[in-house]
Every structure is written in structure tokens, then in C-alpha cells.
Here is the input.
Amino acid sequence: MTTPHRSDNAVAQVAPAALRLIDTDPAELEAGAIVIGVYSQDADAPSPLLLASGAESIAVAFDGKLTDTLLLLGASGAVGEVTKVATLGTVTAPLVTAVGLGPEPTGALPATETLRRATAAAVRALAGTETVALALPVGDEGDDTDALRGIVEGAALGGYRFAGYKSTPVSPRRNPAREIIVHVPDAESAAAAAEIERTAHVYAAVARTRDWVNTPANNLRPPAFAEQAAALASAAGLDVEVLDEAQLIEKGYGGILAVGQGSEEKPRLVRIAYTPAGTGATKKIALVGKGITFDTGGLSIKPAAGMWEMKSDMAGAAAVISTMIAVAALKPNVAVIAYAPMAENMVSGSAYRPGDVVRMYNGKHVEVLNTDAEGRMVLGDAMARACEDEPDFLFETSTLTGGQVVALGKRVAGVMGDADLCERVKVAGERVGEPVWPMPMPDDIRKSMDSDIADVLQVASGMDRAGHMLQGAVFLSNFVAPDVPWAHIDVAGPAYHSGEATGHWSKGGTGVPVRTLLALIESIADNSAD
Here is the structure.
């Protein structure tokens, strides 16, 4: 009997803190806590600590003793280190929270990513405080807004919490701040206000991605995921098309169907399109994200240990769908089309098998060796379909291989494809604090995937795991049109963080690479003649 899917099991997002700009004296702000920055200094400096700009009036209120007090409490200025000091009436706020910004920058503001990480750590540490004020270095009026972007993004991301399924309140769990006040030189600045508005849309996209990734797989099977995605995209004014199993069969999406055939909840392909107003758009971007709502490995079954984290194997699809909803709000002058193939890779009598030959959407035949290499099967179909839209750029993202984690760790994504586009992805990732590193697609890896009976092997011959991450990209290259620049972003490690929250990363789903994709879209829109 088929278990009915439920689209009403979606977990509501915890309401984000309201962000507000203010330009009055930080020492007089009505808030539960005020956050200031502190730098570490060399041993030969007069003091190991130096208060960052923004803290001047706070330092005066403490009669010049704040730095000494922080030192007594063990502050070192390390990035993200949080030290709390009761003000005892010296300023309006009852608590001053000093957050480390690392070594003092030479004649410049701290790096945007430093501010992002530090602010997130401070806001997270102040959970339970209704209103938090931030008096951190943002530069003078007229400066670029990179520092402000780092601060407000960090504040928003650091306040994320997954609502979860607790039936009774957990004590002493404290709620995130409800309001964040950001001190700036001019609270009426249009550029600063624009950053606040942009951050709200970006945070909503990241939080939605995190929520989807954190949702248990029994509450987010392919039909339910597709329904939720379609409803949100339609509400945002985007064009939406959802192909069900019958339509996938009719149109020949063999890769998606093969992976999904072992599950009672059948696969879907979601297409979401954004077209900018007017006729000035000159570029078109395609996004593709892997949406395996749960991955048992199929008949090539995974070990039990850690399999519960395979609810996160749809992080790529969650990221591209959420990115599209943010695009609808940000309105860049570039057309964007997203594809999210969704399937559940299950074990059953109808599951696809090692040794099967699958005819893909573009007509190529794939010899299957490992049913646990399912992501590339659904992505191959979706990427081939995306190329029919004749995009100028194609960005695909997926939790594709354990080889990414082995090669680059859990924080740095791998990117493969067109060399110039990979470099562009790397730059965008660095800018937003989602590091990416380009990797090659060597000829010997291509040769190892030659099949005796089909056009290509799904993995290397004999299931040789050498260059495992690279194999995934080489396989996907078979489904990209020759004239389409493309980049495959493997986020197997960065998309899900099993440890405690750190910096602007939450525990569980991280939202990577939503902000990288948005940065790429905005960059292409701003340089649409390139």
C-alpha cells in the first residue's frame, strides 16, 4: 500500500529578528546587550587588546577600564570569541558583549567574513536577550557597504534556529533575539537601508534551505517537497512546472525514474523560472540542484552508521529553490531558470540494480555499477533539460560525493567544469564566506569511465574510488551541451554540519551554497554585457 504523502508536515521557520538601523550614541541605546569589537595586538603593543571603532562611547563610560576588565575575564581578541561584562549602570544596556575580530587590520576595516563570523557568534551567545545592539566597525558615511553586509548577514544567520518537533518546551533553551539594532553613521542612508532589505531576503533563503535540510525525510518525500517548492515559488510570482511520474515517463527522464522507481513515493522534476521586467536582460542562467530526499544507497546499501544524515541529500535542490525565491524579491536583470529533480533512493523489489543500463533524457545510455551513485543520474537528466533552455551559464550544486569531503574537508566545496566559470564561483564563494576550490577533470578519469556496452559508466570501472569527486564531474559533463559554460559545485561536506554551531554556520543544514549562487547571479546581472 502506498503511504500518502503529507505536504502539511512542513516545519514553520522560527521568526527572524527584526533588523533596525540607528545612529545615536551606542552608550545610550535601549537594549538588553550591546556588542562591541575587540582586536588582538602583538606582544610589544601597550595592551594585548584594542577596542574596535564603534566602541568609543562605551570605553568612555567605563572610564578607560573596559580593556583591562576584558583581559581579566580572559578575552584574547580571537575571531568569534565572546566575552560578557555586566555594565552595572555605566551605560544604558545591562550587558556589554565584546566579540573578537582577530588582529587589528592595517588602515582598513576587518574583512567582511571576519565581521560576519564574529557577529553571528555574538548574536548566538546572546540568545534569550530580546534586543541586541551592535556597535561594530562599519566605516564612515560614504564607504562601501561590505562591512555592514557582513555585520547584518552575520546577525541574521547567527540567530537561526530550527523549530523542530519538541512536544514540550526545553529548559533552559533560550530564544534568539527578536530585534537587532545596528549602529551606523547615518541611519537614513539609502545604501544602508538597501543592505537591510537585501539581508532579509538572503536570510529567508538560507533559513528556508536549512529548514528543508533539517526536516526528517518522512516529512519531506518527493511529492511533498515538490508541492512545497511549487507553492512558495508561485506565491513569489515565479513560473512553475512540476512533472510527475507519468510525465517523466512520457518525456524520457530515465535517470530520475531509475533512481525513484524503488520508492512508493514517486519522483518529481520541478522547474522554476524568473524573467526580469522589461526587455533589457541579455543573459540567462540555469541552476540545477540535486533533490534526493533520502538516500539509503539503494541495493548498494549504505552502512547504518550516519545514514540518518542522508535526509540532507536534497540540499542542492533546497538551495536552488530558495535562491529562486530570493531572486524573485531581489529582481536582478538576468533571466534565471532552476531545475530540481526529486527522488527517494530506496531498497525494494522495484529498485534499480547494479548492471542496469539506463537511457537518459538526452539519449545517452549509462551502465550502472553502484546504485549509491544516484545523484548524478537525476542530475544528468536535469542538466540536459536545462541546456535546452540555451542558458549562458549553468550552475549545478549537489551533495554528490564523499570524495569531496576526503579531498577538501567539510568546509570547502569543490567546483569543476569550465575553468573560467569555476574561477568565478571561487571568487563568489570567497566573497560571501562559502569557500570553494577548483578541481580538475583529468583524461585518465574520463577513460576509467568507458563502458563496454553503454555510452558511459556511472562510476569508474571496477568501482575504483580514486578521484571519486572528479568522477562525478566527468560523468555530468556528458549531459552538458558543448556551447554551455558550466560549473558543478559539490557541497557534500559544507551543506550539512553535524557539529555544534560555529560562526555563521548552524548545526545541521547550513544553507550552503545559497549565498554563493546569489552572488553569482548578481555579478552576472551587473555585468550582463560580459
